[in-house]
Amino acid sequence: MSEEKNLLVANFFSTIREEYEDRIGWKLNTNSRLRVQVEARVALANAIRPYGTLTEVAKLIGKKDHTTIVHSMKSHESHFTWSPNYRSKYKIALECVRDLARDQGIDPYFNQYTLDSMRDEIHTIKKVLDLNIETINKFYMKAEQQKSHWMRKIEDEILSLPSEVA
Fold first, then answer.
1. Angle subtended at Cα 71 by Cα 68 and Cα 77, rounded to the nearest 5 degrees
2. Most buried of 7, 44, 75, 112, CB within 10 angstroms?
């Protein structure tokens, strides 16, 4: 990659990080292992991944090694499925990336990895939606059972009343 392209990516990533930190309301702490910090970094790394190499993304979040990003990508599905905080941060990160990429006319690198990643992302979202639908259906069934139970109790109470009132 040319020096000019490296500078363009570095500036784009720097701007993304600043905007992301502004939107979430605090600075990323690259050394922190607090869950909220880790999830915020992982969300940003996964949102920006199509726009640069693993090493460039690692530098963005203050890490030296691309393997951190590999781990972040592997943990994305689990975070996305189980952490509302992560989903929120990921949404903010995606919005930052989308808005700034559009404003600066920067396109993601489309290669087989990017397409596979998008396919995996769609699959993950579908799994989360299916899980939510299943949970809603369980709550609905439970509510229907409770409704039936209480209706029977009310009917029994009504039937136990004296048939004639004096």
1. 140
2. 44
What would you measure as the largest C-alpha separation in the chain, in angstroms? 99
Cα distances from 63 to residues 50, 57, 86, 163, in angstroms, run 18, 9, 20, 80
* H-type alpha helices, the chain: 3-24, 35-48, 54-60, 67-82, 84-104, 112-160
Quote the pTM value.
0.68
Cα dist. 72→19, 47, 165 in Å? Answer: 21, 11, 73
pLDDT-based confidence at residue 131 (cuts at 50, 70, 90):
very high
Task: Kindly list the domain boundaries of the chain, sorted by start residue.
Answer: 1-109, 110-166
